[in-house]
Amino acid sequence: MFKHFLVPLDGSRLAEAALPAAAFLATRLGARVTLFHVVEKNAPSEVHGQSHLRNAEDAAAYLRRLSQRAFPPGIVVDCHVHAAEADDVADSIVAHADELEHDLVIMCSHGRGQALHLFLGSIAQKVIALGSRPVLITHPDDQGGAPAFACNNILVPLDGDADHAQALPVSEEIARACGATLHLMMVIPRFASLSGAAKVSSRMLPATTSRILEMASQDARETFREQLETLQRQGFTASAHVLRGDPAQTIAKAASHARVDLIVLATHGKTGMEAFWAGSVTHRICTLSKISLLLIPLPKA
């Protein structure tokens, strides 16, 4: 399980919105935390109207202050500054992965939708592309500050893919450590919400497509019935739901309605992260919802 968190920070309040999640999970999981900053070459003095760290001395002092202010006693917090100026902050963070021996990156998105800050896009993109480092994405509150973090309800969207089901064991361990309720969900598209190649073929065989989707719903309910019984025998409080509609929109809406604190998804990222961020269900959930999102990278074929 996760025992060493890496929290990249740039000096802004927006980036600090990742700290409550890091403190909460470090307490529950008994993990250590490394606060990390890369000195950027020709760094701007501000980012989104907020201060931006520009030299190693200021960064070290800043990280030390945060380590004392943001974490309760008993949590081991290290501070690491990559002092050599870097042209690419994301590359520098990825290069430190083995040296720092972290197993979870916790970072905050600097916006929503098309306003996602490049800091998020580039770092998350490259860390997940490595295929081994999970990334927890949090969001600032409406004032751009750090919202409180809790983990009472965890949503695990599944799609019938055995690889994507690898998000479930991770979710179980977090739920056990936090005393959280697990909510399994599968969204079967409606005929009208199909996209891509499925949408093209559905126009040729509308009746057959509708029947296939209905059969998929029935199969999902049976699968979830068995999984739910297993979870409950293991002592988990759990629920399972099969819904119909656009997957990303339905997941985001259901997560908000159920007051979910964390969504856990597994991803291959097997065609490169540009495609991942451009059109995947995961990216759309991130743009539609401000609920924390844990991405579990899967080995590439």
TrEMBL record:
Q: Which SUPFAM superfamilies match?
A: Adenine nucleotide alpha hydrolases-like (SSF52402)
Tell me the ranges covered by the UspA domain, including all copies. 1-138, 153-297
Q: Pfam families given for it? A: Usp (PF00582)
Q: Which InterPro entries match?
A: Rossmann-like_a/b/a_fold, Universal_stress_UspA, UspA
Q: Which domain of life is it from?
A: Bacteria
What's the family? Answer: Belongs to the universal stress protein A family.
Name the PANTHER family for this protein: STRESS RESPONSE PROTEIN NHAX, UNIVERSAL STRESS PROTEIN UP12
What is the protein name for this chain? Universal stress protein
The uppermost taxa in this organism's lineage are: Bacteria, Pseudomonadati, Thermodesulfobacteriota, Desulfuromonadia, Geobacterales
